[in-house]
Amino acid sequence: MDDLDAYGRDYVPQAAAGVADHAIRGGDRYVGQRDLLRAIAVADSGAEADVQLGVDPGTFYCADQLANLIALAGEPAFAGVLTGFIHVPPDRSTGAAAAAATHLLPRRDNLQQCARVVAAALRELSEETSSFADTPALVLTAFGPFAGVVDNPTAAFVGDGDGLAAMVRLAAPELAPVGREPLATGVLHRYAGGGRELLLATAELPLAASPDDALAGRYFDPDTVAATFRRALADIARVQPPRAIVSLGVDSGQVLRPARPAFRVETQTRGFHGATRGRTASDAYQRHLALARLYLRARARGDGPLRFR
After folding, report:
1. Is the N or the C terminus of the chain less surrounded, counting Cβ atoms within 10 Å?
2. Are the C-beta atoms of 249 and 59 separated by less than 8 Å?
3. Which residue ranges in the chain fall short of pLDDT 70?
4. Residue 217: left if φ>0, alpha if ψ -120 to 50, beta else—which one?
5. Quick one: 134 exposed, middle or buried, by C-beta within 10 A (0-12, 13-18, 19+)?
6. How far is C-alpha 148 from the geometric centre of its chain's CA atoms?
7. DSSP-derived pairing of the beta strands 137-143 and 242-250
8. What is the pLDDT of residue 13?
9. Is 2 helix (H, G, I), strand (E, B) or coil?
10. What range does the domain containing 237 cover?
């Protein structure tokens, strides 16, 4: 058993770590002591955020989405498609409580750091082929607003064409935007250069029928959000089948934790959504290490968009 395979197996959820803000804060103590990645994302301003391997995405939509991605990876139609989930820290534009949290960063810094985090995975994926020309799409999904999160930074990230282009340049400097195609449930971005091509599909998954409903906590059930995700994938696959699917969600519990912001590449989940169990929920942790292995490979390489401790 290698270090990553053992990582998180002995994690025991602590009630005190998961009571606030929809129980998203689980795993802080364990990760702080045992994280294998030990990476840092640095914004242009010099502001830093940790990049870690998470062991518990909590009991909100993020946890359920990772379970959906695990289930998807086991289906024949998605054989060989890399899937994974990354928690993004909140920033001072996220909501009223975040605006007053001095340990959080401005939105610009957060999005630049997010670009570096995702670019690190994209760079490793690009090394698996000599040309993007025949490579299917990379899919990035994000969530919209919810109670306490008026402006979700993950939605801001996938909706920022310039930021996405900067992310792609970090992974493959020769690539530049060459086209943008609206889809029914998202956007397909095309990049090319140096004999290579990359397709990047983005989609925002709403958590309620309207932003007002989301901010009031009148959410969809988890299966409705999962069905939206499936429709987005079908919409993208009609143009190009996915090569990798990475979902992003904001770790809003970090508003309450006075520590340096942290990105979490999640490695396991039970898939619970509060008291409501989606179809992919499990009493035991479902483990999913494919995305984490990409980041550890980047660490072994020792260069690229992230800095390693």
Report:
1. N
2. no
3. 1, 14-26, 128-136
4. left
5. exposed
6. 19
7. parallel
8. 77
9. coil
10. 3-308
Q: What integer pLDDT is reported at residue 154 of this predicted model?
A: 98
In terms of residues, how long is the chain?
A: 309
How many domains does one find in the chain? 1
Side-chain half-sphere CA neighbours of 303 within 13 A? 2
65: nearest Cα among 201, 228, 219, 247: 247
Report the DSSP pairing between strands 272-273 and 276-277: antiparallel
The pLDDT tens digits of the residues spanning 164-220 come to 999 999 999 999 999 999 999 999 999 999 988 999 999 999 999 999 999 999 999
pTM over 0.85: yes
Contact 258, 30 (CB under 8 A): no
d(CA 165, CA 177): 6
Q: What is the pLDDT of residues 266-285, one digit of tens each?
A: 999 999 877 778 889 998 99
- Residue 237 to residue 241: CA distance in whole angstroms: 4
Task: Retrieve residue 294's tokens.
Answer: 């990409």
Terminal CA-CA length for the chain: 24
Single-letter residue type at 264: R
